[in-house]
Amino acid sequence: MSDFLKIEGLKAQIDADGTPKEILKGLDLTIPKGEVHAIMGPNGSGKSTLSYVLAGREDYEVTGGSAHFKGQDLLELEPEERAALGVFLAFQSPVELPGVNNANFLRTAVNAVRKARGEEELDAVSFLKLAREETSRLSMSGEMLKRAVNVGFSGGEKKRNEVLQMRLLKPSLAILDETDSGLDIDALRIVADGVNSLRGPDFSSLVITHHQRLLDYIVPDRVHVMAHGRIIHSGGPEVASLLEKQGYKQFLEAAA
Amino acid sequence: MPAVSETREAVEKLAKSNYEWGFETNVEMDLAPKGLNEDIVRLISARKKEPQWMLEWRLKAFRAWQEMSEPNWAKIKHPPIDYQDAHYFAQPKKKAGPKSLDEVDPELLKTYEKLGIPLHEQEMLAGVEGAGQKTPVAVDAVFDSVSVATTFRKTLAEAGVIFCPISEAIIEHPELVKKYLGTVVPVADNFFSALNSAVFTDGSFVYVPKGVRCPMELSTYFRINARNTGQFERTLIIAEDQATVSYLEGCTAPQRDENQLHAAVVELVAMEDAFIKYSTVQNWYPGDENGKGGIYNFVTKRGLCKGDRARISWTQVETGSAITWKYPSCILAGKGSVGEFYSVAVTNGHQQADTGTKMIHLAPDTRSTIVAKTISAGKSDSTYRGLVRMQPKARNGRNFTQCDSLLIGDQCGAHTVPYIESRNMSARIEHEATTSKISEDQLFYCRSRGFSEEEAVGLIVNGFCREVLKELPMEFAVEAQKLLQISLEGSVG
């Protein structure tokens, strides 16, 4: 299986009140096509930074290393070009867009991406049909399509809205940044189902989480432990339960 | 329509003639000499074949204007305007226009392309010399709009609605014009309204009789001679008891004009239970990237809710002009009458806008709503200036004001200047104001979903303006959304 996402020696820093602060310190990670990998790690280990850097957020300056996706240099691309290539980031804190109709936002996004991928754009009717199917699959009320993007949404609604976007945009690499936080058990199941049903030979995912709980539903092919801006341990799904029982201590000590 | 063909003949005749200096006797000339004096006012009146009372009205205004000085309270800056260094009467043929599209600001042409405007219309909008006269296609376009206008006039006439150039109304319906002209905006109301009253050349006149709901949206677009009356436009709209009318002014395409100074006056009169909706999309040329050559737009717009339960609603999308000075207002004189003001003002580059509204509550149970959205980008400066006044008799008067400013970049400015005067204890006035920037979070969120940066800005700005845009008639709203995005291109990154 070819390497789908290949990250080598990635270093990135952020400007913290005028002084650069290095957060990613030489990270290596490879996700083959069709696999789901999880990243777990203590707070401040750089998990969210990794997701932002992969999606193209400009506040983070890449100072070394590389990231390739489908053979392309990901770091050279604008965020919207990465989206067209198939990268999707489900935000940990989805952003509110006052006055922007959710259905309109989704349709414009879907069509922007379809156009960039050389696919036919969806007209309003077929889009709405698709969107209704997907919202009911995620047990979302159809009302949410009429509201402004994420405005006044509960935490759980925001997360489902992210998964809705993911399903509509049909990415080949979905990065889920703590999508489980703030979800009750029923919502968690629904969200996990939303991800699992996309699984297949052309879909890879990077699931960032604090808890094993999510990984009970989205069973990963590999689990990576991240600390201090690096991957310090990689293993099978059993690593998650080990972490849940024993914490990060042993991995941190082994890496030191 | 005899009046229309007459106008057309006059235009053709004047277009063929050459400018000569002997202006007092030469009926063929198309441009009065520079300067403003009583003779020029008399000349305009004579050329319009106006009755004596109209001339006297103009002269009164001119004399008042001479005693006045330019207002200086607005937050705008411009070099002094030399009022003697301008032509106050010019017929359609343009002297100063570019010879062809090659001479037009290429940025302007790009915008036309984005809006999908056909070439011959581009020429007319850009003020290319002779456009619409020598190009056969353009002439057809003009003739088309004549026939469209004619058809509409028939429908309107059947409903009893009068919709015609005000110059025609002065001659055909003097009793109506005499009764209402200058009653809402008195000739000496302000410096620019006085100037307009003295020298206005044309504009629209609308009269909707009692109980009539005007069968269509009235638009300046269908008025044959609208294109050349931009400088000192005069509009008067009267809705009798229970009458309803919606009027659209302007055009989303940026319009060029060789006259830098524009000073329009609009008066609305709404009688008992009448409703007047007045929508504007203003996109006059804002100037080149250094702000040169843009239009100065000094406008006086005011509506009088004369009858009980009358309602006047102003909606404006202001994206053009180098300077915008404009405060569409409502005088709520009828019991339970309603005034509304919905505004989006966008400034980019070096544009300056000082705009807002006045809601004057005179009678009991009057209500007003103000929703003003200000967007500043580039090096521009935008001010919302609004007055809400509750007079002693305006018992239980209510006002709700919401002013939101959105800043793009770090070199622009937005200011909110609310004036609130309440002279009775039962009135309720609410004011909300916010200032925000388009956040990096919002931009990144949209871009990670496949939007380009400019699309993202357009999306966020349209969301910000939604409450106002939804007040616009449907087709206008769609165009306005597109326009907002285009107006802000290049403002980020």
From TrEMBL, chain A:
Record bears the keyword ATP-binding: yes
Domain of life: Bacteria
Domain ABC transporter per the UniProt entry, residue ranges: 5-253
Record SUPFAM superfamilies: P-loop containing nucleoside triphosphate hydrolases
Keyword terms, alphabetized: ATP-binding, Nucleotide-binding
UniProt similarity note: Belongs to the ABC transporter superfamily. Ycf16 family.
Protein's name in the database: Fe-S cluster assembly ATPase SufC
Species: Bombella favorum
TrEMBL record, chain B:
Family (UniProt): Belongs to the iron-sulfur cluster assembly SufBD family.
Occurrences of domain SUF system FeS cluster assembly SufBD N-terminal (ranges): 153-214
Domain called SUF system FeS cluster assembly SufBD core: residue spans: 222-464
Protein name as it appears in the record: Fe-S cluster assembly protein SufB
One Pfam family linked to the record: SufBD_N
Organism of origin: Bombella favorum
Coiled-coil segments on the chain, per record: none
